[in-house]
Design brief:
alpha+beta, CBS-domain, four-stranded mixed sheet, 6 strands
């Protein structure tokens, strides 16, 4: 396929094949202490993770920055001993809900412009995995590489 039809195909494709399944995703519970969440974030070497409740629903995302900002809002000085007194749900970002697994590539691409990943949910709002900006960018790069190869292989 070439030209606009091929582009439309890529950008109208469902994101389901690109999802990293929940079994491979680090998550935290909204009732965990901020101390435990920060420990998980630090040990796993990640800046943020989805917050998934006992019903397997996405409640938001928690990041190291969210935790530090929350603690600074409580006191002018960071007192890490206070982390165990607060829950993830107090500091998490609730504006980062999930999108459906049957969402189209162009929609997910737009959502991921300012995020490194987005939680993916099913129609019952259950967490099924994440979609990363890296995976989406790799697919776009593949598309343009194929397009370029088709262009230079055309007889003149």
């Amino acid at each position: 396929m070439k030209g606009p039809n091929r582009t439309n195909f890529l950008f109208s494709k469902e994101i389901a094949p690109f999802i990293i399944p929940k079994e491979q995703v680090i998550v935290v519970d909204p009732d965990w202490s901020l101390e435990r969440a920060l420990l998980v974030l630090t040990r796993k070497g990640t800046t943020s993770v989805p917050v998934i409740n006992q019903a397997e629903e996405v409640e938001g995302i928690i990041s190291k920055t969210d935790i530090l900002d929350f603690m600074l809002s409580k006191s002018r000085e960071l007192d890490f001993s206070q982390l165990r007194k607060h829950k993830v749900r107090e500091a998490m970002n609730q504006t980062h809900g999930g999108i459906l697994a049957n969402s189209i590539f162009s929609f997910a691409f737009e959502v991921l412009v300012n995020r490194s990943y987005i939680p993916i949910i099913d129609v019952k709002n259950k967490f099924i995995g994440i979609l990363t900006r890296k995976v989406m960018m790799e697919k776009v790069i593949e598309y343009f590489q194929e397009e370029y190869l088709q262009t230079i292989s055309k007889p003149k």
